[in-house]
Design a protein that fits this description.
Elements lengths: L1 H9 L1 H38 L25 H14 L5 H7 L1 H16 L2 E5 L3 H13 L3 E5 L24 H9 L7 E5 L8 H4 L10 E4 L4 H13 L4 E4 L11 E5 L7 H12 L7 E5 L15 H5 L22 H19 L12 H22 L14 H11 L13 E5 L8 E2 L7 E2 L6 E5 H12 L5 H4 L2 H17 L4
Parallel strand pairs: 1-2, 1-4, 2-3, 4-5, 5-7
Antiparallel strand pairs: 6-7, 8-11, 9-10
Helix pairs in contact: 6-12, 9-10, 10-14, 13-14
Protein name: THIF-type NAD/FAD binding fold domain-containing protein
InterPro entries: ThiF/MoeB/HesA, ThiF_NAD_FAD-bd, Ubiquitin-activating_enz
Function: Catalyzes the ATP-dependent dehydration of threonylcarbamoyladenosine at position 37 (t(6)A37) to form cyclic t(6)A37 (ct(6)A37) in tRNAs that read codons beginning with adenine.
């Protein structure tokens, strides 16, 4: 062995090889060591640059659990704000930012992360869903976020808010989010709008920031009027938007989906939003996060207001704003977080260009066209019977395929009102009309007088019997159907009368 070692060490080639290996190891070690030392130095420099935490009393809660009306930023909040101010001016090591975003960086690639870091996103609604969504976006690298919300943090907010603490109770939700998140991502620029979203302010609230249009708008509103106004504005102005439907009364995270608003079901907020949008001519084209969980025995539900509340006067006076919610919605604290993270995940993938495929909803447009054609034939036949001597050929209907979809899906929940069957559907008049069904007020044009409120959803077979017995015969619906069916149809028709003001 000794002689072999002597021969190997005496070889010139072996000596060169050994020297190269040792030199390479030394250089690699030096480079890695230097990088480690530099990273440690940058981190320590950052820590030293943060103003020292001085002595002073923390903000105290009032007797009713709200933050003091006096400015009560703690010393830690103050130094975080000072650091954030510097960071947003560029006085923050970019290598440290990339280190903090390292996991996102390797997942999305440098190009994808750069798109995310340069994005401008608007979050409307900063409660349970909106706060978790905003926190996820800031932690993932989004550098410009506009927050819109008029509300304040309450004690009951703390079961579902992403970052609020007791010290934040009584403060605006937008301020709370900025204050807490700048302690995590000080380089993020926040634009705060402490106000309720309203159509009259849409151009300003959803407008550009320093010349840049929003890359995405997030709807996390739980007030139906504001939600519909926001989605209508975004749709008609070609602004990318995603909407969170109701997380209240939900408990099963495995039933949460992302899809088109036309596919969202089994959620009162989703149904009301979808119905109002259809009335505005918007049937699809808006992605939403929704739950397919159905209500059931023992599950939480929104109960009607007690009678004594109505006796006190106008129920609307109980809300924080006119026409705003006046009841406490049962919410499991985990579910808004799941909805918020699902929304944030969608936005991150879309902006960064990461591949994403969601289960598509089955289109029913052909079915609506078929139902409309069937209704056209029924109305022509009825017109000939109610207006003798008048040719009903070419009769026009003031109803479109979208209107058919609205009646089928929103008024009758996609099922026959008679049997509950969801296939081979048709629309027909519920009651026999009195007088002529043709409108001849426009010269040269014959139009059916049928309105959406006149129609009921049935199977084709049921519609054939109904037209024979009720529309062409002498029976009334009460004579043909049970009281439960008649009450159901009448309730749905009366419900539609309340929605007609939005059309």
């Amino acid at each position: 062995m000794a002689s072999w070692f002597q021969r190997a060490t005496s070889s010139t080639h072996a000596q060169f090889a050994a020297t190269a290996i040792v030199s390479g190891a030394v250089v690699a070690g030096a480079i890695l060591g230097y990088q480690h030392v530099r990273r440690v130095e940058r981190t320590e420099d950052l820590k030293r640059s943060i103003p020292a935490l001085g002595a002073g009393d923390e903000g105290k809660l009032t007797d009713w659990g709200a933050a003091s009306p006096q400015p009560t930023m703690s010393k830690e909040d103050e130094r975080s704000a000072m650091l954030a101010e510097r960071a947003q001016k560029g006085d923050y090591d970019d290598e440290l930012i990339l280190e903090q975003l390292a996991r996102n960086r390797v997942f999305l690639t440098d190009a994808g992360l750069q798109k995310l870091r340069s994005a401008f996103i608007i979050v409307v609604g900063c409660g349970g869903v909106g706060s978790h969504c905003t926190a996820a976006l800031a932690r993932s690298g989004v550098s410009r976020i506009r927050l819109i919300d008029f509300d304040q943090v309450t004690l009951s907010s703390l079961n579902r808010h992403a970052v609020a603490t007791l010290a934040d109770v009584g403060t605006p939700k937008v301020t709370c989010l900025r204050k807490r998140l700048q302690q995590i991502t000080p380089w993020v620029h926040f634009d705060l709008c402490n106000e309720l979203f309203a159509p009259s302010a849409a151009d300003r609230l959803l407008g550009p920031w320093e010349g840049r249009k929003p890359d995405f708008i997030i709807d996390a509103i739980d007030n139906i009027d504001s939600k519909v106004a926001l989605l209508d504005y975004c749709y008609k102005n070609n602004l990318p938007v995603i909407s969170s439907m109701g997380a209240g009364c939900k408990s099963d995270p495995t039933r949460i989906f992302i899809g088109d608003i036309s596919a969202s079901t089994d959620d009162p907020l989703s149904r009301s939003t979808r119905r109002r949008l259809r009335a505005l001519g918007i049937a699809s084209g808006i992605p939403v996060v929704y739950s397919t969980e159905k209500p059931g025995p023992g599950k939480a539900q929104l109960l009607p207001l007690p009678e004594e509340e109505f006796q006190k006067g106008s129920v609307g006076d109980l809300g924080v704003l006119p026409d705003f919610r006046v009841r406490i919605l049962p919410v499991l604290g985990t579910m808004p977080a799941v909805f918020g993270y699902a929304v944030a995940n969608h936005v991150i993938l879309k902006i960064s260009g990461y591949p994403s495929e969601y289960l598509p909803a089955k289109g029913r447009e052909k079915m609506y066209d078929g139902i409309l054609a069937q209704l056209q034939g029924s109305e022509e036949k009825l017109a000939r019977a109610t207006t003798p001597g008048e040719d009903a050929q070419g009769l026009k209907l003031a109803i479109s395929a979208n209107d058919v979809g609205y009646v089928v899906e929103e008024i009758f929940r996609g099922k026959s009102a008679i049997s509950g069957v969801s296939t081979r559907l048709a629309l027909c008049r519920w009651r026999k009309p009195s007088g002529s069904t043709i409108d001849l007020s426009v010269e040269g044009q014959k139009t059916s007088r049928v309105l959406l409120r006149d129609l009921v959803c049935m199977t084709k077979e049921e519609a054939t019997v109904h037209e024979r017995e009720v529309i062409q015969g002498g029976k009334t619906p009460e004579a043909l159907y049970s009281k439960e069916i008649v009450d159901l149809v009448e309730a749905r028709i009366n419900e539609e009368l309340g929605y007609e003001k939005y059309r």
